Task: inverse folding
């Protein structure tokens, strides 16, 4: 048994994911990050919402919580504020985090509460059979855009930066080592962190868009992946469906929410009590 | 020495919550319950307890459930529109068996309705608001001392039965400043489930009717909690036998323990020919009307429900059998009356006094209805 395997709950296998799905890669990368940081499984909690990503916590041999659609961050906020010393990880998909859970995402980012979010972006609602998501590329055919998608995607990193997130990064399922490294780095970040992982859904997105083989789809992701520096050199037109990978924000100066609450608000409140005012 | 003071109903709830050991509060501002959050934001940090204002009511209840699973006693407070939003997570708390106290200071509805006017129109939403069969406990105090004690009881029942508990309060009682003698700590029970050293994943395993053992994260053994239907290990399972057992386990923990959960008060019922059934602020009007009627020689009594869900069926049936006439008084267009009619013996005449215009009943109006029986 390899080191990282102690973080995987094999007894709950098999997973519901289709063969070739990027979720397996992400599951392993997270387990490897746990392992390299030598974390005690009982000191970790993995929370998720609904969808293919929502099923991931079941397979971690840590404390795990499967919640409601889009709202894993709210449960995680309660856990983190209740037990700030624990590692609280949230796994979310693009529909989960950016459509139904969009409000919770921007507020968790703004608060800088120390939750480590892995945002799996496969551009589709996979579990429900392939309906358009806020991250489906324009013109793509889905079950609910049979004539092509007319909505633009979010710029996720920009959205998070505008929401004052203190750690924002993006990687892809094709780049295993950088993916594991950036997840590990995000786990060490004190405040709110998001690692967006570009993943493949060849079954529910690719199949309807001439990419039914997992390798065709991962190749599509690879062709559109650019290092942050290279992406910035491109003109607006050249960027198109390409996306940069790397770490976009890493702000270590802003204090984490529960740190601020217990080490700033609590002493202030206690002081006011001693002052005799009720 | 207990202290006598004049306090707003919302503050009584907040003070009682602190006394019950509430150490996590998440909420979102809404009239007429905001004073509870305001009080908690000021007092909780003084004793190293957590307060957070979330981005909406869905998030507030989510945070409370998360904190409960991390070992805290948590509470949120809201009103009708916020309570509607909370239904999603109320279902999760029932499904995953998580203790949490939800205060609903009711206002006129539907929709935005009348934020500053009372109404008792969330009775049925409290029971059936979230989808699926689910157990629920709902308490409904009417007087200031009851507001304090029912809040304590709400925490105790949540902790004992590992279930969400809704504390209903009428807008007028949340906002009114009333005389109250805060009971001495130690003069009432504060229940705290014993820490459970979890040694295996079989966390929901128990016999029918038993309370679940305490299931917290970080208790030495990593566990899984799920909003999907699950087996006794918490693993997702749709296996028909398992599903049937888990559904019944969740309901039966309530129905096997009705004696402990159901509370009510009876006034002048022993010789009553007419029985009034009411709760909250309407029960106060009804009680005043009972006194007026008795002065005029009318034999009338009042059954005041303190536990509204599960419905105090057996106790109310017993009284109805003697009185033969029952008048349900509620500030809505008829909700609890359906429960009364459903359980009434066939020779009992059921009448109602209903109103949903934001004005509590005047005792003389109740007296008039009694005379018309």
Result:
């Amino acid at each position: 048994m390899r080191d990282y395997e102690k973080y995987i709950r094999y007894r709950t296998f098999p997973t519901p994911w289709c063969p070739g799905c990027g979720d397996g890669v992400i599951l392993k990368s997270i387990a490897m990050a746990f392992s390299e940081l030598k974390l005690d499984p009982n000191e970790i909690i993995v929370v998720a919402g609904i969808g293919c990503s929502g099923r991931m916590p079941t397979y971690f041999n840590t404390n795990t919580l499967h919640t409601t659609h889009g709202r894993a961050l709210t449960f995680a906020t309660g856990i983190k504020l209740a037990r700030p010393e624990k590692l609280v990880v949230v796994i979310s998909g693009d529909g989960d985090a950016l459509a139904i859970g969009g409000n919770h995402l921007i507020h968790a980012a703004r608060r800088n509460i120390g939750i480590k979010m892995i945002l799996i972006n496969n551009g589709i609602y996979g579990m429900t059979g392939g309906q358009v998501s806020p991250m489906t590329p324009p013109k793509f055919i889905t079950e609910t855009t049979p004539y092509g998608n007319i909505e633009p995607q979010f710029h996720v990193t920009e959205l998070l930066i505008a929401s004052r997130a203190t750690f924002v990064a993006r990687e892809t399922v094709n780049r295993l080592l950088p993916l594991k490294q950036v997840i590990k780095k995000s786990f060490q970040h004190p405040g709110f962190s998001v690692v967006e992982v570009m993943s493949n859904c060849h079954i529910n997105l690719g199949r309807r868009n001439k990419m039914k083989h997992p390798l065709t789809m991962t190749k599509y992701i690879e062709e559109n992946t650019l290092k942050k520096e290279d992406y910035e050199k491109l003109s607006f037109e050249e960027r198109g469906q390409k996306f940069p990978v790397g770490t976009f924000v890493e702000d270590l100066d802003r204090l984490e929410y529960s740190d601020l609450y217990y080490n700033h608000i609590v002493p202030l409140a206690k002081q006011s009590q001693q002052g005799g005012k009720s | 020495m207990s202290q006598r003071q004049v306090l707003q109903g919302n503050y009584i709830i907040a003070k009682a919550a602190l006394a019950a050991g509430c150490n996590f509060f998440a909420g979102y501002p809404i009239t007429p319950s905001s004073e509870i959050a305001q009080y908690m934001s000021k007092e909780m940090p003084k004793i190293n307890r957590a307060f957070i204002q979330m981005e909406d009511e869905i998030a507030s209840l989510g945070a409370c459930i998360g904190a409960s699973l991390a070992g805290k006693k948590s509470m949120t407070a809201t009103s009708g529109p916020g309570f509607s939003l909370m239904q999603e997570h109320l279902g999760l708390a029932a499904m995953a068996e998580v203790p949490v106290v939800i205060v609903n200071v009711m206002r006129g509805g539907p929709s935005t309705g009348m934020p500053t006017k009372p109404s008792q129109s969330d009775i049925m939403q409290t029971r059936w608001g979230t989808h699926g069969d689910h157990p629920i406990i709902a308490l409904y105090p009417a007087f200031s001392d009851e507001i304090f004690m029912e809040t304590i009881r709400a925490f105790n029942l949540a902790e004992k039965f590992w279930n969400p508990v809704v504390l209903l309060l009428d807008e007028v009682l949340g906002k009114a400043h009333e005389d109250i003698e805060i009971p001495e700590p130690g003069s009432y029970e504060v229940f705290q489930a014993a820490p459970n050293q979890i040694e295996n994943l079989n966390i929901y395993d128990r016999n029918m009717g038993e309370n679940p053992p305490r299931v917290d994260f970080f208790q030495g053994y990593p566990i899984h909690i799920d909003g999907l239907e699950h087996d006794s290990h918490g693993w997702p399972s749709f296996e028909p036998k398992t599903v049937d057992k888990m559904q019944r386990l969740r309901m039966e923990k309530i129905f096997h323990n009705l004696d402990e959960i159901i509370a009510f008060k009876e006034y002048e019922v022993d010789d009553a020919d007419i029985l009034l059934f009411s709760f909250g602020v309407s029960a106060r009007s009804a009680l005043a009307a009972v006194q007026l009627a008795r002065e005029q020689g009318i034999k009338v009594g009042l059954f005041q429900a303190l536990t509204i869900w599960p419905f105090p069926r057996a106790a109310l049936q017993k009284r109805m059998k003697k009185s033969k006439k029952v008048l349900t008084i509620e500030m809505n267009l008829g909700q609890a009356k359906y429960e009364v009619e459903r359980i009434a013996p066939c020779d009992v005449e059921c009448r109602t006094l209903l109103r949903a215009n934001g004005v509590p009943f005047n005792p003389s109006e109740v007296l008039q209805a009694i005379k018309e029986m």
